[in-house]
Amino acid sequence: xxxxxxxxxxxxxxxxxxxxxxxxxxxxxxxxxxxxxxxxxxxxxxxxxxxxxxxxxxxxxxxxxxxxxxxxxxxxxxxxxxxxxxxxxxxxxxxxxxxxxxxxxxxxxxxxxxxxxxxxxxxxxxxxxxxxxxxxxxxxxxxxxxxxxxxxxxxxxxxxxxxxxxxxxxxxxxxxxxxxxxxxxxxxxxxxx
Length: 193
Prior knowledge:
The chain has four helices and seven strands. It is an alpha+beta fold. It is globular, with a radius of gyration of 18 Å.
């Protein structure tokens, strides 16, 4: 298996990355069950999504890129996000994470680089749990999330229909380091009796 060269940079995504990030996502819309979107977006339609992931805070977009040897230009290899888990206020300390790689970059360590950088960037944010939804079967994604401490917490069976079939979605979660909020261990003096 070919590994990604060490010259790969992981950095916050910007509007300059919009076309490349959209193209990577479109591949998965058209060819895989990694996303349950079934219709491609234009880059202009994806712009609000990109802007909802600023450079700081709990909701981020990171991209992995390197200089393409063929034309000496930057090439986006993949992206990872932390996004709101659900819109209601009580969910504000949970994020849903995902990573998408360009077709030629899968299985080469790009997802690992992206998640490593994402979780480092989120350290100290007010996040208690990270969640990931994985359409099954997807052993590479299960392995990637397991390597970062995610554990399986349940599976929705036949919850989505794409490519003329129903797909199960397994949910994974991991504890995150939160800078505020209640501790992971309950205060015994506050335990209901």
